[in-house]
Design a protein that fits this description.
Helices cover about 40% and strands about 15% of the residues. The protein contains eleven helices and 15 strands. InterPro entries: 3Beta_OHSteriod_DH/Estase, NAD(P)-bd_dom_sf.
């Protein structure tokens, strides 16, 4: 199979590309920057912007499938940048798929497209919610997911996967931020720290996307659907943070911030921060919601429809993480 993978500059998409190559697939990697050293050199590399429809269409030439993960992420930025990259970029991928007769498209989404701040307990993947102006990223990805799933047809099979809090060795997002703050004595817990949260070890996120690609075809049970992907092992925020700090050989001494206070601070910071700095803010309302409310998901539909089960438990993942930190 020949597969176009977009956004291979990220840990997850890079891992997916490498897994496909290792099993014998022909892979075309599309990302804005020059090829990452971590990507198997047996792939073809295309340096292009997802907003360039001609470049995307050219990259999809001869492909049987596309895994589309290129996206503008984060809090800081203008709506135009999120809209053109996440929404227009997805439209470009669909245009390319139709012009090049690609039959399968896996859209890499995010659980935030359907997260409105309330606790999610054993939740299914509910429809993407549009109209939230507080997060350009979530709003643009929600619109893009709807566009992608609407493209599911008798010629192009589409599904959306929402990987939840992907982490692993080398992760600069969840792991990197917690370790940096713990190292500087600035680690904070929003609420009482007892909210149950799903996360996804990177190897499981990779294998889940590959399993979805294999299960997807026109008329498949999974075609036209969205799924949340996680380890299916919810842990409290306290347990997760403590395990990360332990793996990094750091003391676990978090400060506690009441949820109401965290939500208020997050709302203020996300409005003021972009006016003062270009970096990501230390807290936003969305981050406070994620740390202070339960959010874990029912994995049965994804496991049944895509014939997938996690390969690595959370405890095994933390063991791998500790080994990686020890080797640095």
């Amino acid at each position: 199979m020949k597969v176009l993978v977009t956004g291979t500059g990220s840990m997850l998409l890079r891992g997916i590309a490498n897994e496909l190559i290792n099993r014998g697939d022909e892979v075309v990697c599309l990302q804005r920057r020059p090829a990452d050293a971590g990507i198997n050199q047996n792939s073809k590399h295309v340096s292009a912007d997802i907003r360039d429809v001609e470049a995307v269409t050219s990259a999809a030439s001869g492909c049987d499938a596309i895994i589309h993960g290129a996206a503008r992420v984060g809090i800081v930025g203008k709506w135009h940048d999120f809209q053109t990259t996440n929404v227009q970029g997805t439209e470009n991928v669909i245009t390319a798929a139709k012009k090049q007769n690609v039959s399968r498209l896996v859209f890499v989404s995010t659980p935030s497209v359907a997260h409105t701040g309330q606790s999610l307990v054993g939740a299914p993947a509910t429809p993407a919610t549009i109209g939230r102006k507080s997060s350009f990223y979530a709003e643009s990805k929600a619109i893009a997911e709807r566009i992608a799933l609407d493209a599911n047809s008798e010629h192009l099979a589409v599904l959306a996967i929402r990987p939840h809090l992907v982490w692993g060795p080398g992760d600069t997002q969840l792991i990197g931020r917690i370790v940096e703050r713990a190292s500087n004595g600035r680690l904070a817990i929003i609420g009482n720290g007892n909210a149950l949260v799903d996360t996804t070890y990177v190897d499981n996120a990779v294998s889940g996307h590959v399993a979805a690609l294999d299960a997807l075809h026109v008329g498949a049970n999974c075609a036209g659907k969205a799924y949340v992907l996680s380890n299916g092992e919810p842990r409290t925020v306290h347990e997760l943070f403590r395990s990360i700090c332990s793996a990094a050989n750091l003391p676990y001494e978090p400060r506690h911030i009441p949820l109401v206070t965290g939500l208020f601070l997050g709302s203020v910071v996300e409005r003021v921060w972009p006016l003062l700095r270009s970096s990501e803010p230390p807290i936003t309302r969305f981050v406070a919601e994620q740390l202070g409310t339960a959010h874990w998901f029912d994995q049965r539909s994804f496991q049944n429809d895509c014939s997938w089960t996690p390969l690595v438990t959370l405890d095994e993942g933390f063991s791998h993480l500790a080994q990686w930190f020890a080797a640095q």
